[in-house]
Structures are given as C-alpha cells and as structure tokens.
Design brief:
313 residues, alpha/beta, TIM Barrel, 2 domains, eight-stranded parallel β-sheet, 8 strands, 15% strand, globular, binds flavin mononucleotide
Length: 313
C-alpha cells in the first residue's frame, strides 16, 4: 500500500486533489488537526480543514493534542463527517509541542498515549484508529515504545525510522522498522504496519517494503521530488512536458484561491514552486521571477506567459 504522508501546510484538500489527478496514492492523510479546535466554540475555524472530496478517499484524519475529552469529541465529529479512519500523531518532534506532552512528547507518557488512543476509539466506535510515531524520543527505544503501542492493538501503526531528537537529519533507520514488524508479529498480528522515512521512488518503496516486511509505505518529502511518485508506470515529473507542468501548478493556485478564499495565506503556495517547476530547463529564472508575485492572479498570469520558453518568444 502506497500512502501520502500527513504534512502540515502541504496535504490540504487542494494538494490532495491535484495529486489524485496526477498519480493517486492508495491512501491519503489530512494535515494534523488540533483536537481541541473541534469544540463548537471554534465554529468555522476547523470546518475548511475538514472538508474532502470523494476523489481523496480512502482518507484518514490525523489528530493531535493531549486531552482525552477533546479526542472523544474530535473522533465523533470525524466519524460523522465520513472519514475512513483516525490517526493519532505521536511523532511530531516540534519542541514546543513535545514540551506540552503532545505528539512525540507522548513517548515519555505511555499511559497518557494509551488513554488518548482509547478516547479516539470511544468517540468513533465504527472507525479504525491508527497511530503514527517515531522509534524513540532521544534514543531508539523501539522494543519498549513500539511494543507498548502494539499492546493497544491499533488498526495500523506507522513507524518513522528516526527518533524525535533526530528531527529529519540522519537517514531513516529501516532496520528499526523491521524490528517493529517483528514485534507486531509477536504482539498484535492484526495491526497493519507502515514504514516511513526517506522513500523517493517506486523502486525504493519496493526495496524498503521487502526488507522490512511492512504492508504499507508512507511517502512525505519524496512527493516534492516527483509529483508522480505514486504512478504505476510512465515517466517521472521532471520529464513531463512544459505545458503539463505549468498547467498543474496553475490548477493548484487556482484551486487554492477558490477553496481557501483568503483563509490561508497566498505565500504558502510558494512552497510548491520547486516541486512543480524543478524539471524545467529554465527553472532558476522562472522560479526566481515567480517569487516576486504576491497574489493568485498575477502569479497565474506569469505562469501562463511562461508556457512559452524565453528563447522562443
Ligand atoms: C512540511 C512537513 C509537514 C509535516 N507535517 C506532519 C503532520 O502534520 N503530521 C505528521 O504525522 N507528520 C508530519 N510530517 C512528517 C511526515 O509525515 C513524515 O513522517 C516525514 O517527513 C518523514 O517521511 P519522508 O522522509 O518521506 O518525508 C511533516 C513533514 C513535513 C516535511
């Protein structure tokens, strides 16, 4: 199973729809969603982040936080909205979240992690609940931490082969993912295991799955290197025709404008410029010029104009 990783400010419904139209994964995740913001007093603030289209299925909503009542409430709402599953973030290493005992901070408080898992199951009794985590906080503690999580019998468990302290720096350690699969075989054979970290192509995906024994592989940053990373055949994104490349980016910008209607900053779109454009022979000047625009209309007009390469104008 090929899975698009949850990525904050990246995998919103806009990007999921674009990826779905180019080369869809087998499973989508939302960005991480703060469980307390599901409270009705926050009204519409959460609403747009929660919407999805049928083309983005199957889709798992990922939540984070450390209050069980919030988890029950959030899970109930996600079930009602028709999500296919709920995932709990126990891996984000952002220091201010870890300090608050959220995300990777839960590695230090396994009992709390178990309570949150139970709360999500209670809120959404008909949905599978999964967990995404790392192999430890400061040092690998796969046996203890992953072993503990498997005792909870989650529907699925995603293991990112790094500690929280490692952030995204050293190469992901897939031997720890392999160890996690062995623990699963012993402790919770029904749990679907997903490996994550540094996968950027179909051949790497196949090799990692074969070596570790996971049923699923999750790809995050690899999508920026090849927007077609989930394709079954054909050429990578860098080999696509100029018009296809520019049209896809224009479609993304246009959908961002109509979907978010100003609720999300225009500037987040610039994060995608390299991913779309890096195969163009004149990538550098197009990229640099694109950075000068600060609204949807002018960036789209510039990209339309860029369909004609400079030396043919
Ligand atoms: C921009 C960005 C945002 C991310 N946001 C989330 C998130 O919301 N939830 C989560 O579980 N992981 C998040 N991650 C971590 C990824 O899901 C993934 O675990 C990590 O990037 C390692 O996989 P990769 O090497 O394939 O990128 C994020 C990563 C990036 C680069």
């Amino acid at each position: 199973m090929r899975i698009l990783a949850p990525m904050e400010d990246v995998t919103d419904t806009v990007f999921r729809r674009i990826i779905g139209s180019l080369a869809p994964p087998d499973l989508y995740f939302t960005e991480f969603l703060r469980a307390d913001l599901f409270h009705p007093r926050f009204g519409a603030r959460m609403q747009r982040r929660l919407e999805f289209t049928e083309t983005e299925r199957p889709i798992i909503a990922q939540i984070w936080g450390n209050n069980t009542a919030d988890y029950v409430m959030a899970a109930a709402r996600l079930e009602q909205l028709g999500y296919d599953g709920i995932d709990i973030n126990m891996g984000c290493p952002a220091p201010k979240l870890v300090k608050k005992g959220c995300c990777a901070g839960l590695i230090r408080t396994p009992n709390k992690a178990a309570e949150l898992y139970a709360a999500a199951c209670e809120g959404a009794p008909s949905l599978p609940v999964s967990i995404k985590t790392r192999i430890g906080l400061d040092t690998p503690e796969t046996e203890d931490w992953i072993g503990f999580l498997l005792e909870l019998r989650p529907a699925a468990l995603t293991v990112h082969g790094r500690t929280a302290a490692e952030m995204s720096d050293p190469p992901a350690d897939w031997s720890q993912v392999r160890l996690a699969v062995e623990l699963r075989d012993r402790i919770s054979p029904a749990t679907v295991m997903v490996g994550n970290g540094d996968i950027g192509s179909e051949s790497e995906l196949q090799a990692a799955a074969a070596a570790s024994g996971v049923e699923g592989v999750m790809i995050g940053r690899g999508i920026f290197e090849d927007l077609l990373v989930f394709r079954r055949q054909g050429k990578p994104w860098v080999d696509q025709p100029r018009e296809v490349v520019l049209d896809a980016y224009i479609r993304h910008i246009d959908l961002h404008r109509s979907y978010w209607q100003g609720e999300r900053n225009f500037e987040v779109l610039k994060k995608f410029a390299r991913a779309y454009l890096h195969g163009l022979p004149d990538f550098e000047p197009v990229y640099r010029a694109g950075m000068r625009y600060h609204d949807h209309d002018s960036l789209i007009a510039f990209l339309q104009h860029s369909k004609i390469p400079v030396d043919s104008r």
